[in-house]
Amino acid sequence: MKNVTAIVLAALLLLVSAPKNSCADEEKVAKIDRLTLLGSLAFGVTFWWWPEKGNLQPAHFKEDGWFERKDDWGGADKTGHAFSAYLLSRSMALAYREAGMDSGKAALRASLAGAGIVSLLEVADGFTKYGFSREDIAANISGAGLAYLLETNPTLDRLLDLRWEYLPSEEFGYGEVGMNFVSDYSGMKFHLVCKLDGVPLLEKTPLSFLELHAIYYTRGYGFSGAAPPGRRNLAFGLSVNLSKLFRKWEEKHIREKKSPFAPLPSTIFRYYQAPAITWETANSINDQ
User: Fold this and answer.
1) CA dist., res. 56 & res. 126, Å (int)
2) CA of residue 19 relative to chain centroid, distance
3) pLDDT category, 4, cuts 50, 70, 90?
4) pTM of the entire structure?
5) Which residue, of 38, 117, 208, 214, has the greatest Cβ tally within 10 A?
6) Where are the alpha helices (DSSP H) in the chain?
7) Residue 21 pLDDT > 50
8) Is pLDDT of 89 > 80?
9) First and final CA of the chain: distance in angstroms?
10) What are the b/e assignments for 66-92, b being 16+ CB within 10 Å?
11) How far apart are CA 282 and CA 173, in angstroms?
12) Exposed, middle or buried, 157 (CB in 10 Å: 0-12/13-18/19+)?
């Protein structure tokens, strides 16, 4: 449940960060910090600590591997950690910029906070059956690091996205997954996206509406004691850039000041990949 905090907080920060006229405002920055810290505590207690309160253990480490077939969740939890830190870092950077903070400082502060918050939840994991995982910490740092890289490199940011796709799987409601959609890895896919809109030679052509995807996902790891282990898949795909499609509509609404939330669709589709719109070729990597 620990990634619930990062995802919900990121959604809240995206909502409160709709463009507005603002100058540097330390009070707004402080409010963002308070929202993040208090939200982490509230969601962590509600969705993570309370369900585990009867199963707390002495602090301990756990070596849970990376992307091997025998590892818990087949490595999908590592991509989940990286994406959670990435999403929280980018959302906080957006909020900081809207509060008037310099872009470079906003990127650094947000990435450190994003990695720190998700890793703090990992420390708390050390007191449960899951244990403290060094691999999870590394994944958190990787996600926050990617967020910083894209925040500070506009050209690269136009070219790359990291996205999460989700539809409830048949395992949702059972076994280790239970009713926790954040652990329903069999319903998730993680996309590293190359947007042709970010290629200078293509940005003014119809090809700019297309994207190339590298996708990692696992299936069948959600049932307790399932044997043999589940399937790991690496896919490559082609999709439509929904964020670009929404941009013209948003520009019109911003000009006419119809809604302060006009930029939300294109922003959301930079982080959430709509299911069933990606043509992909799957390749099982279980034997590798």
Assistant:
1) 9
2) 22
3) very low
4) 0.83
5) 117
6) 3-16, 26-43, 50-52, 76-98, 103-125, 134-151, 154-159, 242-255, 264-268
7) no
8) yes
9) 30
10) ebebebbbbbbbbbbbbbbbbbbbbbb
11) 26
12) middle
